[in-house]
């Protein structure tokens, strides 16, 4: 680590005096990896979700308190139990200048419902039977059954009907957001503002996998902004750089360890609980993440209306060993009980976490093999349910129906994100009732039961809520991090220009 900082300091000294020519109004953003897709019908990874917010808008949006606000829609009503009626704002246009009408909204939502498209979001709209346009300015959504969480999902970006009829358009898109795609090539993704009078006319996203390189580029002025893509061990150095500004804020991103509940060993809840008890989460977050995360017990943050207070999982390796003995998985002559394969990405912070977790599990007799894969290959395997153990995070969780998506037995891959293949008929029933209840109080009670059962069954090993860490260069003024990690605020920042930038 000392060598790393020494090399970093030397590089900064060598490059500090070198200016970087800039086009006025261009913001350069560094990402650990590029979005998987710009198509809102397929965006599930964090990079895709955050970038496409700049390109697309939905009927509704959520504010910081998870309350619904109108976006493309000015109003909505439920004239019948199985019917929603949305009125669109007048004068809406896509980025290519064509008018946005109710037919475009209907086409986009209908495409997600189409089994042939195979949208990963389809399961979230399972209660919808039909979407139709009533004239140019009204959208009607007909339901098969009540769905209390439908409105939250209507933040989905709307596409022109001509594009909505096509298969996934991963690298080209037309939306009605603040920006449109100018170019996506080997140098990165460039978005340009639809309103050319904006302060930030162009945003250029570049993939810079190595965190030290990202910091170097920030300090040299080759990048202007990075969010959540600098590991904590570099943050103390960031704080010492007069040219950089760092902001942190608690987030809605829930980090966890995923488990394959169909695995011959992990199907035993005693084994899963032993794995959780063997983790000293406080030490992990202090040593690896500058003590910035807040320990979590479930997906939704404590401030959410649907969250319930759960007992803290203690660090108790002695009890962990007892549970493993009770499960019939005693230590062998070599001290090993059994082996696990732990899949993770090549991201340095994730790899460090996997290494530290593996060391703690080895102390209770579990031999851990770490398999690190490039993001695309890693994420593809996790989505397929091809793993024993992995670590990831649910990004920006705001709707309690996330529990249906990750716990309901109908959501096993490829239909949803119950990747560990958990199955509990009682939990399914609670989730079904909560999804259909019109009473927020009743939903709160049902989700409390779900969270308690999820905790008891140790479906996931909870870690913490990640912090939002935004680092910007001297040109960026006025950015305010959001709990869900949204980059939408970049469109409203002040972007200053110095003589050396011109």
UniProtKB/TrEMBL annotation:
Please name the CDD domains in this protein's record: PBP2_NikA_DppA_OppA_like
Q: Which residues form the Solute-binding protein family domain?
A: 68-405
Gene Ontology cellular component annotations, sorted alphabetically:
ATP-binding cassette (ABC) transporter complex; outer membrane-bounded periplasmic space
Question: What Pfam family does this protein match (any one)?
Answer: SBP_bac_5
Write down the SUPFAM superfamilies for this protein, in alphabetical order. Periplasmic binding protein-like II (SSF53850)
Annotated transmembrane regions: none
Give the keywords, sorted. Answer: Signal, Transport
Q: Which family does it belong to?
A: Belongs to the bacterial solute-binding protein 5 family.
> Which protein, by its recorded name, is this?
Extracellular solute-binding protein, family 5
Q: Name one GO biological process term.
A: peptide transport
PANTHER family the UniProt entry points to:
OLIGOPEPTIDE-BINDING PROTEIN APPA, PERIPLASMIC BINDING COMPONENT OF ABC TRANSPORTER
State the superkingdom.
Bacteria
A molecular function (GO) held by this record is: peptide transmembrane transporter activity
What organism is this sequence from?
Mariprofundus ferrooxydans PV-1
InterPro entries per the UniProt record, alphabetical? Peptide/Ni-bd, SBP_5, SBP_5_dom
């Amino acid at each position: 680590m000392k060598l790393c900082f020494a090399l970093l300091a030397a590089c900064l000294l060598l490059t500090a005096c070198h200016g970087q020519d800039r086009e006025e109004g261009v913001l350069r953003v560094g990402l650990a990896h590029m979005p998987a897709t710009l198509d809102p019908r397929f965006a599930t990874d964090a990079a895709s979700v955050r970038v496409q917010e700049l390109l697309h808008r939905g009927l509704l949006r959520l504010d910081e308190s998870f309350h619904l606000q109108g976006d493309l829609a000015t109003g909505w009503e439920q004239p019948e139990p199985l019917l929603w009626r949305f009125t669109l704002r007048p004068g809406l246009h896509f980025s290519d200048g064509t008018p946005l009408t109710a037919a475009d909204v209907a086409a986009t939502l209908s495409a997600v419902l189409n089994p042939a498209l195979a949208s990963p979001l389809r399961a979230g709209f399972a209660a919808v039977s039909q979407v139709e346009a009533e004239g140019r300015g009204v959208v009607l959504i007909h339901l098969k059954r009540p769905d209390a969480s439908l409105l939250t999902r209507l933040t989905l970006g709307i596409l022109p009907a001509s594009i909505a009829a096509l298969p996934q358009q991963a690298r080209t898109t037309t939306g009605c957001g603040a920006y449109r795609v100018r170019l996506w090539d080997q140098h990165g993704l460039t978005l340009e503002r639809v309103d050319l009078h904006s302060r930030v006319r162009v945003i250029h996203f570049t993939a810079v996998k190595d965190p030290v390189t990202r910091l170097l580029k920030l300090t040299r002025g080759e990048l202007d902004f990075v969010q959540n893509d600098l590991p904590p061990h570099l943050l103390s150095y960031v704080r010492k750089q007069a040219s950089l500004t760092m902001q942190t804020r608690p987030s809605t991103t829930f980090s966890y360890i995923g488990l394959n509940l169909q695995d011959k060993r992990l199907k035993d809840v005693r084994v899963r609980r032993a794995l959780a008890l063997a983790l000293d989460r406080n030490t992990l977050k202090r040593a690896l993440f500058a003590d910035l995360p807040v320990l979590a017990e479930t997906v939704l943050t404590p401030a959410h209306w649907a969250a319930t207070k759960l007992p803290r999982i203690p660090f108790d390796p002695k009890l962990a060993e007892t549970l493993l003995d009770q499960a019939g998985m005693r230590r062998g002559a070599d001290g090993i009980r059994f082996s696990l394969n732990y899949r993770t990405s090549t991201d340095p912070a994730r790899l460090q976490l996997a290494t530290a977790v593996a060391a703690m599990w080895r102390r209770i007799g579990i031999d851990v093999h770490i398999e690190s894969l490039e993001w695309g290959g890693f994420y593809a395997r996790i989505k397929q349910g091809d793993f024993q153990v992995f670590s990831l995070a649910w990004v920006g969780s705001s709707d309690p129906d996330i529990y249906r998506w990750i716990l309901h037995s109908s959501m096993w891959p490829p239909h949803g994100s119950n990747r560990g293949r958990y199955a509990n008929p009682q939990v399914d029933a609670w989730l079904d009732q909560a999804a259909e209840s019109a009473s927020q109080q009743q939903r709160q009670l049902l989700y409390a039961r779900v969270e308690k059962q999820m905790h008891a069954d140790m479906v996931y090993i909870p870690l913490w809520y990640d912090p939002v860490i935004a680092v910007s260069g001297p040109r960026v003024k006025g950015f305010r991090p959001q709990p869900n990690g949204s980059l939408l605020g970049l469109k409203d920042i002040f972007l200053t220009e110095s003589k050396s930038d011109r």
